[in-house]
Amino acid sequence: MNRKKKVVSTLKKKAKKANAKLAPHSTKPRYISKAERAKMALEAETIQSEDKVQEESSAEEQQATAE
After folding, report:
1. Which of 11, 21, 26, 66 has the largest count of CB atoms under 10 Å?
2. Residue 23 DSSP class
3. Tens digits of residue pLDDT in 23-54
């Protein structure tokens, strides 16, 4: 009886692990470190500043062509 019980419990454990791998993971967002967040903020800031520069230069060109 003991041997049969042990085999059954082993198979149940394996099945449980296999099902856990297939189960969907939590909807919790991935952790982003403080350094990564700072890097992302810096990149966003540089993109915004580049956009401002491009807008200003296009506005100056429009004013120059209007004159």
Report:
1. 11
2. S
3. 877 788 889 999 999 999 999 999 998 888 88
